[in-house]
């Protein structure tokens, strides 16, 4: 069975551990480079991307994650999506450039700090076509640009919110907070 590491420096990593386990894989918290290189895939949770960047530096994990992502799958949710993007604005900051997307931090603005949306019909494509999805947004980024090899799996109000490129996946919402959550399964399926 595949082991999925959850970056556990900051943010809502505990909910991801539970989501991975209920999707049928083994979950393991990752705080060091040695722990990272022992897992088959990584989830970077939501939280505060600037704080996470500082903690990654302190733990010598920045280069380790860059190297890990060159051959193993990474799933970034919310702040994790910001870290995986190619470009970040509002403001600009370092990112791993593992998924060819441009993101705007806190793109929905302060008025719409958090919301729970029901996605269905034309919001969903590919493996989620014909299903329904609850999406919890918390100070979410907006994906403003997607590259030619990026597949959009879910959109909200016409903007992509769940995408994949090659082995990596990105969600601007928090699938780990929804009871009926098909998204972690989608990520884990690629490890079989
Ligand atoms: N607003 C946060 C950031 O810019 C992300 C919020 C989240 O992960 N829920 O890093």
Protein described:
By secondary structure, the protein is α/β, with parallel strands linked by helices. The chain has one domain (3-189): Rossmann fold (3-Layer(aba) Sandwich). The protein contains six helices and twelve strands. It has helices spanning 13-22, 33-36, 49-58, 62-69, 79-84, 183-189, and strands at residues 3-7, 26-30, 41-44, 74-77, 85-89, 99-104, 114-119, 133-138, 142-146, 151-156, 159-165, 168-171. The strands form three sheets. Strands 2-1-3-4-12-11-10 form a seven-stranded mixed sheet. A hairpin with a 2-residue loop joins strand 10 and strand 11 (159-165). The longest helix is centred in the N-terminal third of the chain and has 10 residues, at 13-22. The radius of gyration is 15 Å and the shape is globular. The N and C termini lie close together (8 Å). The mean pLDDT is 96. Residues 46-49, 78-79, 82, 105-106, 138-139 line the site of glutamine.
